[in-house]
From TrEMBL:
NCBIfam families assigned to the protein according to its UniProt record, in alphabetical order: microcomp_EutL, PRK15405.1
A GO MF term: structural molecule activity
Highest taxon listed in the record's lineage: Bacteria
Range of residues in the leader sequence: none
Protein name (Swiss-Prot/TrEMBL): Microcompartment protein EutL
PROSITE patterns: BMC_CP (PS51931)
Length: 217
């Protein structure tokens, strides 16, 4: 079953070419990290995936990344979305390159998939073929390893993670027990790229079945 894609929108972006020392201290920046790039996204998990991609394409580090409570449907303003991400680098050009990677990833590569016409029921079954510094640290794995990034509503997430683990030779390295800040759940699984893909496919398949028959147990 082919599911319709839901891409994140990058709502706002700003670059600070030379960050004030007081703000730099709050982000615990290293001496060479003089520039910041800040963005907000309508979908948090896509934003985190995009941040990781930025660390592979530019000389940047993720120094802040947080989801907002209850998701983009209850955002604090029209440019808030569901999460905020902050990249730090040695120059404005480097953090700009990082933001370019964030936007490209959100617009083309990473996306949720909807299970109904209203787009109110969705899942994230994304395979990162080679992790950057951010997701490697989050998952506690070596940089460059493959990762299955699996997210869904609470019941679907728990059931789907179990199916993913049984479908392939993968290891659960981080569990997002529901509810997350945005009332989802899921986990990060690692293994070979093909194993991560098989796990993601199994996760998607069982959640499609739950959507079709939610009370058939």
């Amino acid at each position: 079953m082919a599911l319709e894609r839901i891409h994140a929108e990058i709502l706002a972006v700003r670059i600070i070419p030379n960050v004030d020392p007081a703000l730099a201290a709050q982000f615990q920046l290293k001496p060479h990290q003089r520039s910041l790039a800040i963005f907000t996204s309508t979908i948090d998990d896509v934003g985190y995936t995009a941040l990781d991609e930025a660390t592979k394409r530019a000389d940047v580090d993720v120094v802040y990344a947080r989801s907002f409570y209850a998701g983009s449907g209850h955002a604090s303003g029209p440019l808030s979305g569901e999460m905020i991400g902050v990249l730090a680098g040695p120059s404005p050009d480097e953090v700009k390159s990082g933001i370019d990677a964030v936007i490209q990833t959100a617009e083309n590569d990473a996306y949720f998939e909807t299970l109904n016409d209203e787009k109110s029921h969705a899942l994230y079954a994304h395979v990162v073929a080679r992790t950057g510094t951010y997701l490697s640290a989050e998952a506690g794995i070596n940089q460059g390893e493959a990762l299955a990034y699996l997210i869904a509503p609470p019941l679907e997430a728990v059931y789907g993670i179990d199916a993913a683990l049984k479908a392939a030779d993968v290891e659960l390295v981080k569990f997002f027990g529901p509810p997350s800040e945005t009332n989802f759940g899921g986990g990060l699984l690692t293994g070979s790229q093909s194993a991560c893909q098989a796990a993601a496919d199994a996760f998607r398949d069982v959640i499609i079945e739950i959507a079709r028959n939610p009370r058939q147990y």
